[in-house]
Amino acid sequence: MKRFGLGCLLALMVAIAPAWAVFIDTPLGDPAAEARAQRLMQDLRCLVCQNQSIRDSNASLARDLRVIVRERIGAGDSDEQAMAYIVNRYGDWVLLDPPFKLTTLGLWIGPFVLLGLAGLGVVVILRRRRQQPAPAPAPLSAQEQARLAALLDETE
Amino acid sequence: MTETEHPAETESTAAAGAGRSRRLFFSLLPLAAAIVVGIFLFRGLSLDPRNIPSALIDKPVPNFKLAALPDRPPGLAAGDLKGDVALVNVFASWCVACRAEHPLLMDLKRRGVVALHGLNYKDRPGDALEWLGRHGDPYARVGADRDGRVGIDFGVYGVPETFIIDKNGTIVEKIIGPINETILKEKLLPLIAELNR
Fold this sequence. Notes:
The structure holds two protein chains of two kinds. Chain A is mainly alpha-helical. In chain A, 64% of the residues lie in helices and 0% in strands. Chain A contains six helices and no strands. The longest helix of chain A has 27 residues, at 105-131. The termini of chain A are far apart. Chain B is built from five helices and seven strands; from the N terminus they run αβββαβαβαββα. The longest helix of chain B has 45 residues, at 2-46. Classes of the chains: A mainly alpha, B alpha/beta. The interface between A and B is medium-sized, with 15 and 18 residues.
């Protein structure tokens, strides 16, 4: 009986999983267009809950923006046109994948610059180490010489 | 023997000096790095992540036409925002922060320095009217944006927001969140005076 209940619960969870993934909206009639709209939604940041895409967010503004994305796609916009429609209103900030331009140069190139600097540092340090080998060990004292001689004698 | 030893000695002290300054440099490096990171973090403290720069600054107001609230004419359209310096305040009866800034909007109305309009965002007309009746109505015109489409055209993502629009109908500035005494005195009023000149 317990197992049956568990099975029911599991079946229910599987059944409503898609509803969790996407909040109840009216999808576009054309599945291809809907797929395109979904892809765009995934790349648009929800402005209310800032680390979610509008596809994942249940904020009312995110819902409105989903409606607009579907509307633009439904009206025959290309992906770029539909994105531009939103970006014109909310700026590059809504893009979860920010564009490469002058103001975002640091964002895109910064990590590589840092990596390059770190690599350069490693090269410089390693090269210096090779040029200056560790100083030769101090010559043996008379006492040590004597002991060495004794040891060598022993092995012979 | 002594002659050869002497130069070698000065060389080694010079090398030791160079080594010491290099060691000093490397020991100060983490401190310098910490200071640089600290400056960025400190700046981050005073930055509000909700303050997203508006894409509409220096752009003309979007084209729109909104009906008035019932029995509270006139409504608001893009054409109404030309000719005078104007503020468009996005408000809603369900917005708690709007109540905080409301007395300042009433104060702004009394000053009479700017045309103050309201954009009633995603609100029920009855609720909006009741709210204006209870807290006072500072607006010259109010447009009822029931579905929030005009709000989206304005790039609104949180209420309240206030747009400052110059005589040509260009959006000059946007204030996100409730207006407070400081924003009013140090930002809004000087900007309005400048635009009115």
